[in-house]
Amino acid sequence: AQSVTQLGSHVSVSEGALVLLRCNYSSSVPPYLFWYVQYPNQGLQLLLKYTTGATLVKGINGFEAEFKKSETSFHLTKPSAHMSDAAEYFCAVSDGGRGSTLGRLYFGRGTQLTVWP
Amino acid sequence: DGGITQSPKYLFRKEGQNVTLSCEQNLNHDAMYWYRQDPGQGLRLIYYSQIVNDFQKGDIAEGYSVSREKKESFPLTVTSAQKNPTAFYLCASSGMVATNEKLFFGSGTQLSVL
């Protein structure tokens, strides 16, 4: 079974500071990992995803995440926060489906990012 | 523009009433999903569908029903059996059954109880 733990339901940073949002996963098979962002009263948008290959994944808006198998982690980072980054961020894991079986996403509980001017 | 349209944006339900949330996509996606979002709990899967006329229960299907009569439509009915329906409901779709393809989300419906 797959599961996701996001450490810290709220993270606050100053504009220009490093953003670090933590995600640890549990998976019985090689995982596919995702970060989604949600702005108020909207649906989720994909920031980045890891399936196979390079473990450092770059996404939109300057975000990146590194898949560390030994630590079962997929932390999201951005070197310099911007006010527009304030949103809720969700980490998700999937087994990617096997054969005809629908792969399912399992979401973490989310981390609310606040950016102070 | 291609995308997923959810309606209405806000919906109010009276006790004992069934209500239906609409979800339409013009992305030609095979798979569609309904998620429920409660504050601090992330997203929980209610139902999903891989193809027309087929759907499966997710983790919290009790008190909900769905249909998939057309590829582009996947309405969700919140029945009177759902005792705590107040939540933000998100519909999503993906182009392939395997979810290493990304999900496209609608903008959600906020359901509240009168």
Q: Could you list some keywords that capture this structure?
A:
heterodimer, A: 117 residues, mainly beta, six-stranded mixed beta sheet, 0% helix, 54% strand, globular, B: four-stranded antiparallel beta sheet
Structure, described:
The complex is a heterodimer of chains A (117) and B (114). The model of chain A has no long low-confidence stretch (mean pLDDT 90). Chain A has strands at residues 3-7, 10-14, 19-26, 32-38, 44-50, 56-58, 64-68, 73-78, 87-94, 105-107, 111-116. By secondary structure, chain A is mainly β. In chain A, strands 2, 4, 5, 9, 10 and 11 form a six-stranded mixed sheet that branches. In chain A, strands 1-3-8-7-6 form a five-stranded antiparallel sheet, with no helix packed on it. Chain A is globular, with a radius of gyration of 14 Å. Chain B has strands at residues 4-7, 10-13, 19-25, 31-37, 43-49, 56-57, 64-66, 76-78, 87-94, 104-105, 109-113. In chain B, strand 4 and strand 5 (43-49) form a beta hairpin. The interface between A and B is medium-sized, with 26 and 26 residues.
Strand content of chain A: over 45%
Percent of residues of chain B in beta strands?
Answer: over 45%
Q: Which spans of chain A have pLDDT < 50 for at least 5 consecutive residues? A: none
How helical, in percent, are the residues of chain B? under 10%
- What structural class should be given to the helix and strand makeup of chain A? mainly beta
The major sheet of chain B is characterized as: 7 strands, mixed
How widely separated are the two ends of chain A? 41 Å
Biggest interface reads:
A-B, 26 and 26 residues
What would you report as the Rg of chain A, rounded to the nearest angstrom?
A: 14 Å
Termini separation of chain B: 35 Å
Q: Please provide the ordered H/E string of secondary-structure elements of chain B.
A: EEEEEEEEEEE
Write the H/E string of chain A, N to C: EEEEEEEEEEE
Count of runs of 4 or more consecutive helical residues of chain A: 0
User: Major β-sheet of chain A, in short?
Assistant: 6 strands, mixed
Shape of chain B: globular
Helix percent of chain A reads under 10%
